[in-house]
């Protein structure tokens, strides 16, 4: 049995960005020819697309957990990681996307609309991209950031031009089956319709859609019966048709009392802000089942009172099709006028999104607890930079410290009253905790070479001309001294030999 689902909670996890690569190019006669680590691939997004071919959220009811592909890791020789596969989720036209707090994120009322519900993580940069004239051979790379993970609520609101409302078993399903090619379930017991049915009606040159809403009873706006669950499907309709059963055998019921109950429930239902209240929309009355003689007499009796209230009344029969043509053309005129009014209405104000360069990119919040005061840094950039940092690599930690310093974090900590050794947390929750020491800007002071300088990269020991000249003179002086010493020893030996001969 096919179940209609119009509300579901999705648990989404976007793809994680791939890590960047740390690599040094090695060739023959060039064992260390420079950094060539590639970037990591971005994680895949989760995108919702309004698809006219999808009519229910049933598939997401059975499988609410959805994940996108992760980005690939960067590789040597400047090879970037593969991009994570984007997950596209088709949803019915008219789906409202909300966050867990109930705030509307997007209303997908147009076919083909796309909404990125869960953006993927950013791929980390490789050491080739991080190389600069001052950092010629970075010994680190950035890590990929995790993708968005959380819940979104999908709520389906049927997009139709006309809604059929009325008591259970009033003949709404039979009416939509007689006016269109829709084939809803029809039976002689209440609440046969368990989900809205859509049908397309052609009235002359006008084509419009009709929605058969499950039956309403007294108290539907308060949750009784099935009405409250499906009243949302009436929100988007241009006109309402009150289908009144003139052949009902239930005691205490008649077309006038049924209409009063339905009007009371429609008036008690709150529509979203900016929409026309349900009772202020065009409304027609369809007195159904006039093929029954007693029902025909009752319809003739109540029709003057309904027309006195300002309603346009049609006596119809879904069995003999009496009055259906007049009703369909009357609804076509209402829909056509509404569409013309929408086209003539001024275009909505264009929304211009400007860069937020003037806004602060982070905040410093002073918090306290049983262990003393600490300072929490919140902001998109600092939190993302922390996620990208490999804290097992001193050079990567130093790079993070430089980025935070250029962003102005040290100055803000000073203004907030932080002193050397104060506890600083980056991000919400536990975050990344460290002791702040402004005297050491980075870990570069612990390195014997400048940041990004690898002594192995510089194997050329060739001396300059002045150095060769100086070295040449030193050698010549040393040779002259050695010859002088030898000459002195020779003369001394000769004198000694002559003295022995004289003796």
Automatic annotation (TrEMBL):
Its cofactor is Mg(2+). Residues 451-490 have a biased composition (Basic and acidic residues). It is found in: Cytoplasm. Mg(2+) binds at residues 173, 193. Residues 2-159 form the Obg domain. Keywords: Cytoplasm, GTP-binding, Hydrolase, Magnesium, Metal-binding, Nucleotide-binding. GTP binds at residues 166-173, 191-195, 212-215, 288-291, 317-319. PANTHER family: DEVELOPMENTALLY REGULATED GTP-BINDING PROTEIN-RELATED, MITOCHONDRIAL RIBOSOME-ASSOCIATED GTPASE 2. Monomer. This is GTPase Obg. It comes from Microbacterium aoyamense. The lineage of its organism: Bacteria, Bacillati, Actinomycetota, Actinomycetes, Micrococcales.
